[in-house]
C-alpha cells in the first residue's frame, strides 16, 4: 500500500494517491487503529496543543476563494476592518495566553502583503513573542525578501494552506494557483520558518480530491510541522453557501489519514468545530488530531467556545500542551 511503509521516517517518503485512497477505504475501525498506532509512536495521545486566532485585517480581499467571507467579490455582509493597532493585538494576545493558548496566529485578508503593511506586522510578531507566545501569521502570498524579514522578526510559523487538490483548485479559486501557494511555502521553508499548511474539506469535493490533497501535503519535503484540516464553514453570500455538508465520519477519516501520512506533524482540528458534535470531535482526537484553535472566534466566524472545550477535555481526560 504505502510504497515506503518501512521507511516512513525517511525524508524522501512519498505517498501515491492510490496509497492514500486505500487508507480512506479501510474499514473505519482499522483506519482508526492505524492512526492511533502512528499517533502513539510519536506523540502523547492525550495532549492537545492550542493556538488562538485573531483577524488583524478583515475583509476587502481581492481574491475570489469561493469559501471565504473576506473576498470583496461576494456579498457576505462582513464589515471590513483595516489593520489593527499593535496595542489591540497585544491585548488579545495577552488574553489568549492567560486562557492557556501557546501560539497566537494573526491572519490578514490580503492577496499578498504590501511593503507598507509588512512593517507593522513585523512589530506585532516581535511584541507577541515577548509575551512568551509562539507566533504564526497568515498574510497571503509572499514576495521575495518578505519571508526573510518575517524570520528576522522571530516568526515561528507561517500558515499558507494548499486548500484543495490541483484537479479541483480551479473550481474554488481563479485569482491565484496552487503553484503560487507552493511557491510561498517554499520561500517560508527556505528561511527556516516552520510551515503550517493544510486544507479545507466539505467543499463538494470527491474523496479522491481529499486523497490528492493529503498526499500533496504529506509529500512536501519535509511535511508541514502543522497541518490544519478545516471543515468548510458555509458562509452566506459565497458560492459555497449551499454545498451539502460532509459526512462527519468522512471528516474523521480525513484526520486519520493525515495522521498516518504525516506522523510527526501536529494535525489541527481546525474550522468547523462549532458546528460539530462533541462526539465527532472526540473521534477526531481518537483519529490523531492533536491541535485546535482555542477561543471564541476563528477569523470572521464563531469557534467552539473555551468552556465547551474545557468541558470536553475534562470528559475525555485530555490535557492542554
Ligand atoms: N489571505 C490569506 C490566505 O488566503 O492564505 C490568509 C487568510 S485565509 C482566511 C486562511 C485560510 O482560512 C484559508 O486558506 C482557508 O483554508 C481557511 N478558510 C477561509 N475561509 C474558510 C471557511 N469558510 N471555512 C473553512 N476554512 C476557511
Ligand atoms: C486555517 O487553516 N484555518 C484558520 C487559519 N488557518 C487562519 C482560518 C479558518 C477560517 C474560518 C472561517 C472564518 O472564520 O472566516
Ligand atoms: Fe483572500 Fe485569503 Fe479569503 Fe482567499 S482565503 S479571499 S486570499 S482572505
TrEMBL record:
<dbReference type="InterPro" id="IPR024177">
    <property type="entry name" value="Biotin_synthase"/>
</dbReference>
<dbReference type="InterPro" id="IPR013785">
    <property type="entry name" value="Aldolase_TIM"/>
</dbReference>
<dbReference type="Pfam" id="PF06968">
    <property type="entry name" value="BATS"/>
</dbReference>
<dbReference type="InterPro" id="IPR002684">
    <property type="entry name" value="Biotin_synth/BioAB"/>
</dbReference>
<feature type="binding site">
    <location>
        <position position="136"/>
    </location>
    <ligand>
        <name>[2Fe-2S] cluster</name>
    </ligand>
</feature>
<dbReference type="GO" id="GO:0005506">
    <property type="term" value="F:iron ion binding"/>
</dbReference>
<comment type="subunit">
    <text>Homodimer.</text>
</comment>
<feature type="binding site">
    <location>
        <position position="105"/>
    </location>
    <ligand>
        <name>[2Fe-2S] cluster</name>
    </ligand>
</feature>
<feature type="binding site">
    <location>
        <position position="196"/>
    </location>
    <ligand>
        <name>[2Fe-2S] cluster</name>
    </ligand>
</feature>
<comment type="pathway">
    <text>Cofactor biosynthesis; biotin biosynthesis; biotin from 7,8-diaminononanoate: step 2/2.</text>
</comment>
<feature type="binding site">
    <location>
        <position position="65"/>
    </location>
    <ligand>
        <name>[4Fe-4S] cluster</name>
    </ligand>
</feature>
<feature type="binding site">
    <location>
        <position position="61"/>
    </location>
    <ligand>
        <name>[4Fe-4S] cluster</name>
    </ligand>
</feature>
<dbReference type="GO" id="GO:0051539">
    <property type="term" value="F:4 iron, 4 sulfur cluster binding"/>
</dbReference>
<comment type="function">
    <text>Catalyzes the conversion of dethiobiotin (DTB) to biotin by the insertion of a sulfur atom into dethiobiotin via a radical-based mechanism.</text>
</comment>
<keyword id="KW-0479">Metal-binding</keyword>
<keyword id="KW-0949">S-adenosyl-L-methionine</keyword>
<keyword id="KW-0411">Iron-sulfur</keyword>
<feature type="binding site">
    <location>
        <position position="68"/>
    </location>
    <ligand>
        <name>[4Fe-4S] cluster</name>
    </ligand>
</feature>
<keyword id="KW-0408">Iron</keyword>
<dbReference type="InterPro" id="IPR058240">
    <property type="entry name" value="rSAM_sf"/>
</dbReference>
<keyword id="KW-0808">Transferase</keyword>
<keyword id="KW-0093">Biotin biosynthesis</keyword>
<keyword id="KW-0004">4Fe-4S</keyword>
<feature type="domain" description="Radical SAM core">
    <location>
        <begin position="46"/>
        <end position="270"/>
    </location>
</feature>
<dbReference type="InterPro" id="IPR006638">
    <property type="entry name" value="Elp3/MiaA/NifB-like_rSAM"/>
</dbReference>
<dbReference type="InterPro" id="IPR007197">
    <property type="entry name" value="rSAM"/>
</dbReference>
<feature type="binding site">
    <location>
        <position position="268"/>
    </location>
    <ligand>
        <name>[2Fe-2S] cluster</name>
    </ligand>
</feature>
<dbReference type="GO" id="GO:0051537">
    <property type="term" value="F:2 iron, 2 sulfur cluster binding"/>
</dbReference>
<comment type="similarity">
    <text>Belongs to the radical SAM superfamily. Biotin synthase family.</text>
</comment>
<dbReference type="Pfam" id="PF04055">
    <property type="entry name" value="Radical_SAM"/>
</dbReference>
<keyword id="KW-0001">2Fe-2S</keyword>
<dbReference type="InterPro" id="IPR010722">
    <property type="entry name" value="BATS_dom"/>
</dbReference>
<protein>
    <recommendedName>
        <fullName>Biotin synthase</fullName>
        <ecNumber>2.8.1.6</ecNumber>
    </recommendedName>
</protein>
<dbReference type="GO" id="GO:0004076">
    <property type="term" value="F:biotin synthase activity"/>
</dbReference>
<dbReference type="GO" id="GO:0009102">
    <property type="term" value="P:biotin biosynthetic process"/>
</dbReference>
Amino acid at each position: 500500500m504505502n510504497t515506503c511503509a518501512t521507511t516512513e521516517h525517511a525524508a524522501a517518503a512519498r505517498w501515491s494517491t492510490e496509497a492514500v485512497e486505500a487508507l480512506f477505504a479501510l474499514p473505519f475501525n482499522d483506519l482508526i487503529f492505524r492512526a492511533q498506532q502512528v499517533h502513539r509512536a510519536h506523540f502523547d495521545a492525550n495532549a492537545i496543543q492550542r493556538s488562538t486566532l485573531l483577524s488583524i485585517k478583515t475583509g476587502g480581499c481581492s481574491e475570489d476563494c469561493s469559501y471565504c467571507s473576506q473576498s470583496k467579490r461576494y456579498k457576505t455582509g462582513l464589515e471590513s476592518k483595516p489593520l489593527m493597532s499593535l496595542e489591540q493585538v497585544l491585548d488579545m494576545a495577552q488574553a489568549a495566553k492567560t486562557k492557556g493558548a501557546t501560539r497566537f496566529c494573526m491572519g490578514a485578508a490580503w492577496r499578498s502583503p504590501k511593503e507598507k503593511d509588512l512593517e507593522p506586522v513585523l512589530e506585532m510578531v516581535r511584541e507577541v513573542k515577548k509575551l512568551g507566545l509562539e507566533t504564526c501569521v497568515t498574510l497571503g502570498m509572499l514576495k521575495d525578501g518578505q519571508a526573510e524579514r518575517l524570520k528576522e522578526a522571530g516568526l515561528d510559523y507561517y500558515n499558507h494552506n494548499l486548500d484543495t487538490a490541483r484537479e479541483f483548485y480551479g473550481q474554488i479559486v481563479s485569482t491565484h494557483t496552487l503553484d503560487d501557494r507552493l511557491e510561498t511555502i517554499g520561500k517560508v521553508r527556505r528561511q527556516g520558518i516552520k510551515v503550517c499548511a493544510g486544507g479545507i474539506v466539505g467543499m463538494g469535493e470527491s474523496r479522491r480530491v481529499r486523497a490528492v490533497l493529503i498526499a500533496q501535503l504529506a509529500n512536501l519535503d519535509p511535511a508541514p510541522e502543522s497541518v490544519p484540516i478545516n471543515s468548510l464553514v458555509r458562509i452566506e453570500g459565497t458560492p459555497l453557501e449551499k454545498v451539502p455538508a460532509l459526512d462527519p465520519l468522512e471528516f474523521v477519516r480525513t484526520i486519520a489519514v493525515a495522521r498516518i501520512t504525516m506522523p510527526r506533524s501536529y494535525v489541527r482540528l481546525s474550522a468547523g468545530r462549532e458546528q460539530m458534535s462533541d462526539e465527532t470531535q472526540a473521534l477526531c482526537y481518537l483519529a490523531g488530531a492533536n491541535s485546535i484553535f482555542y477561543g471564541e472566534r476563528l477569523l470572521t466566524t464563531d469557534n467552539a467556545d473555551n468552556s465547551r472545550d474545557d468541558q470536553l477535555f475534562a470528559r475525555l481526560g485530555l490535557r492542554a500542551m
